Write a sequence for this structure.
């Protein structure tokens, strides 16, 4: 047999013609698939001369997506074993897991999920092989004659990405394929329409999977279509990885801002107000005000001018900006007045800032002109995507717009990125990477973007340059740009490793053109400025929700609604505690005294439950010595701290915006100055 040459993990390698990945990696059991010329393929794929070949390990990101997709197929097989009448929808891999949609007579119950999971375990142990075969449309329709949803996908394969979420894992350009599940005797026991790739055998799924929940889902995400039943699951390379993931989920549940928001009396939602429209309670209002005060001053310190704009405007404004009709689905419906004018709730602040810029002539000496406001905007988010504070309909943006010369755009973006990163660090988030969102160059979404190719190329190049200069990891996000220009997004990891999209910096060459914005250049000519959008918090509500989860409700002292609570050991010391609280308030500390009828121990437990940074205890010895005792959130206690020292320490921690709990500790007695 003739020899061919492939490039195996970067090294030219001679192999026999007809060799597969299975043969090449026969002694590497951790390899479950191959990447051939950048494309994931089944391990048993035949390799061709010149192929660039890499092995895919089960625990790698690519390996996990294949594992999860394969597990979704096992789920579907288990469901149809129990209910042969169940019709199959789509079963893609998703972040950390998978799902599959089914048309069944009755919704799945928790008992059903447990039984299905046991059936899946049996299929895994059977060691069924996933075997791929190509079919044409006619063959596929014949084989899927009893599967109406699969038949529909066959007819939509050329635009699968737009047809339905996850459809591209089943059909797409380049032909149709079926995957047969073959048992150890060579019998085909189940078949599904799929593009693959899959694991060589179900046995490789092992015991690192679990079903998590079920939910209803419209076919192809359209409420006009039938309601299907969706089963979600997760799959990992080992049982240990699964358990670690489940513990992360449990920790995330303990940190859920929706639950903590109620427990800490921060905010609520009410059906009389409407979904996605939060009500901030006094304690939540403190956090909101502190954040607003901080970021307002930070903008002023960074050269921004504070402005204000109304919540509604004639919809003509949004046609001028280009948001209508491009953004119509994200805006609330129009409303009218007695003069038959049509108005819209604003979904963004930038069009009104453009009018402020255009209110008088501008010179190059005025640039960069930086405008900023806390503008509340309104987005018509669908009820299914609303999630506490992290996805709302009323959004308070620390929204800024920089108007600069084209030559000054790069420097302004550098300035904004430094500003953004410092702000996030001040709030205790310091693990970042960047995402560069560009337009869709070739796909069906290309028409979503406005402006010339030259402008897009220039804007993208500037953002890419600044991102690289930052030294942070930068990940591509093709097709994720705003319709008017590319953007950099800052992605921050929280205390338990979850990634959140935070601040954005967007390069806009379209709106200055649409609004006819100009400035006078040094030579007297009229030129068009560039507009840089930036939101540091992104959305204040969302940022609060993220911080609640990042800190598990235990806000650092400078952010905490109540920074210090005085707890008298007995009623006789109420007045003494009041006097200490007054000294704290005079120093700018949010302090209160627990004068309730609760027993002393209950008062201490209440302070701990409410996650008060500084609980100060005072009894007879403390009062006589003019001192208090510190009790921290971890239960540690420091006794006999002079009041003046206690006040100075707490005020200092607040002023310095200390985020590390260890930094809230007062120095032990031997280390305190003067002793």
């Amino acid at each position: 047999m003739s020899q061919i040459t492939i490039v195996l993990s970067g090294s030219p390698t001679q192999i026999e013609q007809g060799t597969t990945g299975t043969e090449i990696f026969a002694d590497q059991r951790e390899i479950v698939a191959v990447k051939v010329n950048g494309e994931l393929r089944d391990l048993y794929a035949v390799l061709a001369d010149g192929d660039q070949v890499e092995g895919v390990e089960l625990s790698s990101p690519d390996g996990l997506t294949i594992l999860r997709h394969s597990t979704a197929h096992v789920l579907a097989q288990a469901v149809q074993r129990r209910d042969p009448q169940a019709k199959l929808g789509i079963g893609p891999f998703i972040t950390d897991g998978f799902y599959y949609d089914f048309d069944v007579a009755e919704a799945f119950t928790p008992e059903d999920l447990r039984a299905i999971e046991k059936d899946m375990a049996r299929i895994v142990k059977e060691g069924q092989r996933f075997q791929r075969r190509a079919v044409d449309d006619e063959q596929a329709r014949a084989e899927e004659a009893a599967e109406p949803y699969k038949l529909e996908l066959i007819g939509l394969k050329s635009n699968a990405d737009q047809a339905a979420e996850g459809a591209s894992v089943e059909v797409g350009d380049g032909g149709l394929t079926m995957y047969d599940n073959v048992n150890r005797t060579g019998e085909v026991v189940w078949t599904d329409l799929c593009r693959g790739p899959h694991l060589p055998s179900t046995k490789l799924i092992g015991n690192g999977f679990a079903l998590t929940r079920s939910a209803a889902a419209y076919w192809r995400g359209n409420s006009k279509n039938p309601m299907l039943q969706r089963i979600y699951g997760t799959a990992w390379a080992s049982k240990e990885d699964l358990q670690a993931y489940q513990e992360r989920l449990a920790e995330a549940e303990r940190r859920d801002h929706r639950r903590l928001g109620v427990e800490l009396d921060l905010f609520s939602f009410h059906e009389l107000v409407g979904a996605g429209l939060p009500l901030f309670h006094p304690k939540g209002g403190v956090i909101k005000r502190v954040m607003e005060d901080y970021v307002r001053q930070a903008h002023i310190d960074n050269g921004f001018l504070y402005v204000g704009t109304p919540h509604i405007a004639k919809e003509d404004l949004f046609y001028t900006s280009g948001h209508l009709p491009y953004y119509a689905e994200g805006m609330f419906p129009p409303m009218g007045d007695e003069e038959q004018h049509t108005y819209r709730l604003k979904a963004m602040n930038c069009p009104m800032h453009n009018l402020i810029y255009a209110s008088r002539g501008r010179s190059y000496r005025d640039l960069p002109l930086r405008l900023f406001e806390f503008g509340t905007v309104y987005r018509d988010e669908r009820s299914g995507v609303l999630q506490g504070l992290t996805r709302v309909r009323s959004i308070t943006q620390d929204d800024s717009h920089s108007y600069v010369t084209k030559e000054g755009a790069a420097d302004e973006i550098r300035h904004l990125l430094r500003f953004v990163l410092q702000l996030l660090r001040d709030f205790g988030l310091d693990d970042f990477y960047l995402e560069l969102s560009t337009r869709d160059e070739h796909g069906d979404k290309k028409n979503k973007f406005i402006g010339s190719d030259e402008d897009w190329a220039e804007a993208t190049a500037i953002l890419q340059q600044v991102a690289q200069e930052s030294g942070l990891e930068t990940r591509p996000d093709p097709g994720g740009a705003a319709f008017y220009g590319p953007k950099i997004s800052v992605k921050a990891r929280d205390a338990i490793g979850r990634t959140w999209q935070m601040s954005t910096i967007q390069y806009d060459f379209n709106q200055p053109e649409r609004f006819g914005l100009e400035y006078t250049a040094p030579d007297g000519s009229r030129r068009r400025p560039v507009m840089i959008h930036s939101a540091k918090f992104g959305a204040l509500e969302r940022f609060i929700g993220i911080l609640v989860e990042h800190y598990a409700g235990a806000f650092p002292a400078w952010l905490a609604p109540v920074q210090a609570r005085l707890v008298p050991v007995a009623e006789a010391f109420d007045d003494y505690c009041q006097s200490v609280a007054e000294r704290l308030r005079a120093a700018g500390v949010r302090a209160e005294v627990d004068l309730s009828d609760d027993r002393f121990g209950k008062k201490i437990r209440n302070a701990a439950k409410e996650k008060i940074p500084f609980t100060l205890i005072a009894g007879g010895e403390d009062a006589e010595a003019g001192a208090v005792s510190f009790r921290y959130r971890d239960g540690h206690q420091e006794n006999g701290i002079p009041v003046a020292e206690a006040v100075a320490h707490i005020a200092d921690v607040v002023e310095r915006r200390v985020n590390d709990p260890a930094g809230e500790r007062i120095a032990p007695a031997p280390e305190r100055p003067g002793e």
Observations:
- The chain has four domains: 3-57, 62-251, 267-550, 564-671.
